[in-house]
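Hi support team,

I'm opening this ticket because the web form for multi-chain structure prediction keeps timing out on my end. I have pasted the exact lines I submitted so you can reproduce it. The total is 563 residues across two entries, so I didn't expect it to be a heavy job. Is there a limit I'm missing, or should I split the entries? Thanks in advance, R.K.
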Amino acid sequence: MISGPARVLEYDLHLYRRVWRGSVVVSFLSPLLFLAAMGLGLGGLVNRSAGGVNGVAYILFLAPGLMATTTMQTASSESTYPILAKVYWERTYEAMLSTPLRVRDLVFGELAWLVVRLTLVAVLFFAVMLVFRIPRGPEAALAIPAAVLNGLAFATPILAFTATQTRDTSFSAIQRFLIMPLFLFAGAFFPIAQLPQVLQAVAWLTPLAHGVSLVRGLTLGTLTQSGALVDIGVLLAYTLAGGVGAAITFRRRLIK
Amino acid sequence: MDPLISARGLTKRFGDLVAVDGIDFDVAKGEAFGFLGPNGAGKTSTMRMIGSTSPVTAGTLRVLGLDPAVDGPRIRARVGVVPQLDTLDMELSVRENLVIYGRYFDLTYAEAGRRADELLAFVQLTERARDQVEPLSGGMKRRLTIARALISEPDLLLLDEPTTGLDPQARHLLWDRLYRLKQRGVTLVLTTHYMDEAEQLCDRLVVMDKARIVAQGSPRELIERYSTREVVELRFPPDAAESMDGRLNGLADRVEVLPDRVLLYTANGDAASAALHESGIRPESTLVRRSTLEDVFLRLTGRSLIE
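Hello R.K., no limit was hit. The queue was backed up. Here is the completed structure from your submission:
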């Protein structure tokens, strides 16, 4: 039955309706500024001294990488504080569960909301890339679902974790020790091949390395079939494992 | 007619803790049924099992003829829940709280809106429809929670300590609304640790203590069975009360010595207090009153309801 998750999604959309303007402006301006500063400003230096990265101008290398980090960051913030509020601070889920809604409706409904939210962020980022004439060909638009999948690979495991928490202190740890290092070292700003061998192996275990590789390959039209399959496979594996985990932790937390 | 709720050997355990220990009860359609007992007696756990939000550990439970383990969503579609702590949505306005909640029952926006306006009038919150929830008083929030529980036009309304923490005026307003619901034929099940609330609202009640039911009946039946018609409450200077025990024994059917007062249970309070004076005992104060459920609880458990 689809109506349960749809009701939860509807609730999230209802809340978003109040903040959507600000949110859209931020999601458009922030990539614009980043690409102007780092892509054009810093990129000018990189292009002059090293001839770009992997044979392309720095901004072309950077932009799709940043698109992937952006959906990662959105996923991380959407699946921490707002979820803990519904689980614990505001007990929104408790109210929902005294209606015909079931735990699985909550999990699927929140996932549907995350897809909507991540799609919005990815579309706006893609629009900024169009401003800079970065995407190569119409197939490049596939970078949008790729970036959404990258976001989900973070969202579902974090969702599963959030449902076990009673305080928000661990969220800043996630930000500091997971999101921030990945943002810097998982291939968005420079190729992973620049890292020491050991760290390269670590980087390729994380979803973001594959998300960056997938979004970049699609945006620039440089994707190989085998590369795409590995990237999609890893991202799907994280998403599914996280989803199953969330179903378990949500149930454990909410049904007593 | 089949009971609306039927429980046999109903049990709830949380690990080693036994919250509800094999209780039996039936609630008939149209009845106002109460669980009276102190905090921790197992009332809330029982309510959550009836509301089909908490799984039954052992025993059988049928709500509206259905098994919560199988038909949770179908039961919840016909039951309104007023939880002990309000779960109103602070992000939404007063009216939105009702409409959005109505959507969870698959009402259309138009229908949810129509019912929301009706219910806001019923709980006297029409003027606050567009306001945020946070600034509402405790009594208003409670009334809004009740309105929200009624949005699905439930057959059964569960109220977990509906007036705890409210001032007397707010309590009376709430009792009045609940009484009207009962008149309309809504079955009410409520928990309380206030004996006056149980007496005001309940046709029938069970007294719970330490996860078990210790007595059941109408408030009047319980008082007749477990207490005397009248009670004489005596207050003595500190330390004097204990020494009174032996001397008071002949004056009443039963004497209860509490830390702050002494209770004489008797059919005729005035006669007992006259006899008291004749025997030369001079308490600081003497009050003759009718027996209440508080006395029933004291008799059954040796403790007061609110400790």
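A quick check on our side: Chain B is about 35% helix and 25% strand. Let us know if the file doesn't open in your viewer.
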